Amino acid sequence: FAAGFSGYQIYKRINLHLYGDSLEINPDPVDLDEKDDDVRAEKKNKIEVPEPEARTEENEPAAKESQAQANADENKRTKAVRTTFEYKDKKAKKVLLSGSFQKWKDTRMKGKNGTWALDVYILPGNYFYHFVVDGKKVLDSKNPKTPMGESLIMVK
After folding, report:
1. Quick check: 68 and 97 in contact, CB under 8 A?
2. Model-level pTM greater than 0.70?
């Protein structure tokens, strides 16, 4: 049973990695410097539930107004954030960016005087990525590395 369960878990991770829409660690950015796990857990688990009001003719217009406000808030979408990726290497001839935010498709970066840059619009969250420099995978020295061998970017 243990071998079957482990195999299935590995299969799910590989399937998500190869065919998933996006590989995210956490849809909401989390500050990596924050050390207190209890504070983080409280923030995640804190849900405010409003107490129901008795329905009367006086507060019915207010109820309709609050429903309209709730619908307006629902229609607001999270906007993608312009994120600049930069790699410096004067010897590099071709630099590509590959990341979970773009389904691991390589995107060519523009280089000028040894500085390679690319602007990408990404929704807030934490994502894996790496550079491909002249055909070799290179991690970003400016951002943290994951145990999976990828760089990690936190978009707020």
Report:
1. no
2. no
Tokens 């990828």 sit on residue? 150
Nearest Cα to Cα of residue 124 among 64, 66, 77:
77
Give the list of residues 6+ apart from residue 100 with CB closer than 8 angstroms, or none: 22, 23, 24, 127, 128, 129
- Which of 137, 153, 10 is CA-nearest to residue 84? 153
Query: In this structure, what token pair is assigned to residue 38?
Result: 């209890």
Contact (CB, 8 A) for 149 and 126: no
User: How many Å apart are CA 143 and CA 93, to the nearest integer?
Assistant: 23
> Can you give the pLDDT of all 156 residues of the chain as single tens digits?
888 888 888 887 776 666 554 445 555 555 555 545 555 555 555 555 555 555 555 556 665 666 666 555 555 677 889 999 999 999 999 999 999 999 999 999 999 999 999 999 999 999 999 999 999 999 999 999 988 899 999 998
CA–CA separation, 82 and 155 (whole Å) = 9
